[in-house]
Write a structure and sequence with these properties.
heterodimer, A: mainly beta, seven-stranded mixed β-sheet, four-stranded antiparallel β-sheet, about 0% helix, globular, B: mainly beta, 11 strands
């Protein structure tokens, strides 16, 4: 059973460009959250998707947007990239409600984004 | 769940116990998590506890919760070199969806 997968592993972009990151949740999970982890810091919540809708959003500008597909996979889009957007972007998935692990969020390996 | 604080570094001798501490600031109904991050990797969920519990034990891991002081600790018994990593404390309020993380504690295990 594959865990949470993310692509690409690494990405280099220049300021002003746009980027799309992808995430496939763990099998049996329907909720996807995205986090940004700057170097030396803890992850910061960007938003969470459930039933193809953004259910909750953190303190991130509108340049950060997302999408969830019917198969529960998700994309994170960042427009007009800034140097400060350089970070590890983590995707986490959560299982369907009612199960014993409902309160758990499982993380993928992340996508390392470098903005030059 | 906005303010989660952790000490930044811990050095421990192999075979000793490690104790990693965390304080949080939010409500009485919250989930508290411990995650492990090895270099270049994502976060691995180690264990979690709900705020109506005082303690949870899972093999070498023991979580203690002091609700009055909003203090959480993770004890790792018989610490091994493979336990060297960054450990994150996180909280999630009941009814909320986001995890709020501390800055992480870097644990170094020396021989």
């Amino acid at each position: 059973d594959a865990g949470v997968t993310q692509s690409p592993t690494h990405l280099i972009k220049t300021r002003g460009q746009q980027v799309t990151l992808r995430c496939s949740p763990k099998s049996g999970h329907d909720t996807v959250s995205w986090y940004q982890q700057a170097l030396g810091q803890g992850p910061q919540f960007i938003f969470q998707y459930y039933e193809e809708e953004e259910r909750q959003r953190g303190n991130f500008p509108d340049r950060f947007s997302g999408h969830q597909f019917p198969n529960y996979s998700s994309e994170l889009n960042v427009n007009a990239l800034l140097l400060g957007d350089s970070a590890l972007y983590l995707c986490a998935s959560s299982p369907l409600p009612g199960g014993s692990s409902y309160n758990e969020q499982f993380f993928g390996p992340g996508t390392r984004l470098t903005v030059l | 769940g906005e303010d989660v604080e952790q000490s930044l570094f811990l050095s421990v001798r192999e075979g000793d116990s490690s104790v990693i501490n965390c304080t949080y600031t939010d409500s009485s109904s919250t989930y508290l998590y411990w995650y492990k991050q090895e270099p270049g990797a994502g976060l691995q969920l180690l264990t979690y506890i709900f705020s109506n519990m005082d303690m949870k034990q899972d093999q070498r891991l023991t979580v203690l919760l002091n609700k009055k002081d909003k203090h959480l600790s993770l004890r790792i018994a018989d610490t091994q070199t493979g336990d060297s990593a960054i450990y994150f404390c996180a909280e999630r309020d009941l009814g909320d969806y986001k995890l709020s993380f501390g800055a992480g504690t870097t644990v170094t295990v020396r021989a």
